[in-house]
Input
Amino acid sequence: MSLTHHRTQVAIVGAGPSGLLLGALLHRAGIDALIVERQSADYVLSRIRAGVLEQTTVDLLDAAGVGERMHREGLVHGGFELCFGGARHRIDMHGLTGGKQVMVYGQTEVTRDLMTARAAAALPTIYEAADVRLHDFDGEHPRVTFRRDGVEHTIACDFIAGCDGYHGISRASVPAGAIRTYEKVYPFGWLGVLSDTPPVSHELIYSNHERGFALCSMRSPVRSRYYVQCSLEDKVEQWSDDAFWDELRRRLDPAAAASLVTGPSIEKSIAPLRSFVAEPMRFGRLCLAGDAAHIVPPTGAKGLNLAAADVAYLSRALIDWYGGDRASIDQYSARCLRRVWRAERFSWWFTTLMHKFPDNGEFGQKMQAAELDYLVSSHAASTAMAENYVGLPIA
Ligand code: RFL
Ligand code: PHB
Output
């Protein structure tokens, strides 16, 4: 079998949003990176995931030079609604946070913009790389190896960025004794539907209902994204479009239910809900970023935003390192984890508040109702919610 050698400064494993954004920020700073991705580019673009970007994520995409289409097509939201007890209550994020807002722009589009910019700058991404392996990151000369089209490749580098998501190889390459993980698995999933129908409301609706949680989101003025809490035993094939729309309608207030426009689904999938953190996030010359290091349940839309924040810290640490400040990388893990745990807490809290838990009982339901009532009637409680939803600062 033939062998191809590559040399780069930073080998990035994974071409999801974390890996692509890191590649873009490093390129802007004159640092070389080579990205290796297990899937094809089309496959990466077919995954429908997050939809809400915090201002700090928007700022990072601007800094990476890929914000133009986002500002043209993205929808700026200054509030969202909580639905419970048959009525909706608006959380005025903009008013409660001194003018902060979020941007509704799909992860698919963020990924597409980053891929387009990377191709335009002729920066290297190797798709469909098989058997990716990480070597020697406990020393000064780490390597990444993989196979493609019957050719063995080896990348010699200074650092490896593990941006390969929850199921990736990077975290799994760390010796068990060097890593500690924390996990909570929730006893339900989210069934999501994408449809070319106008959104039921111009802002997001998070609904707590006795039948289970529901969320009304969107991708554009003519494309909606809806979710309903479902059982972990459910299979997508068991959910017809009609069954989905009926269930969603039941979980909304009468006005929203009456104005919901339905149509054929163009994507339908079930995602499990999980909270997960791996500590630390750096092992010698290997740094984990994004879902490779942590998972949040999607209630509150923090997953993609946390990934972007990690990449902000990592790009800064690597730029410092190549600029001669070799101590900055030592702070990488602690800087990320402080923000990660705060987002974990918010996502866990919002998930717990909004979902139907099998073991909650009637007392648990009363507690949820009382907390929701407090949340929408107390300025202090609404402010805390809004402050977390728009996103905590990247220190
Ligand atoms: P990604 O997007 O998972 O990208 C990782 C990339 O690494 C590749 N890879 C490998 N490459 C090389 N070698 C290997 N051995 C590899 N193993 C994996 C993968 O093919 C992939 O291309 O992680 P990244 O970049 O850290 O980005 C994180 C975000 O994708 C994630 O936080 C969010 O999408 C989470 N998430 C959501 N977040 C939100 O904020 N709002 C949402 O509504 C929302 N919905 C979701 C989600 C995540 C989901 N997953 C992971 C199943 C819905 C789903 C279904
Ligand atoms: C989405 O639009 O996919 C979305 C929005 C908000 C969330 C989760 C998902 O909290």
User: Anything to note?
Assistant: The pocket of RFL (ligand 1) is lined by residues 13-19, 36-39, 44, 49-51, 107, 129, 132, 163-165, 167-169, 271, 290-291, 298, 301-304, 307 (CB under 6 Å). Residues 332-354 form the longest helix (23 residues). The mean pLDDT is 97. The longest strand covers residues 180-195.
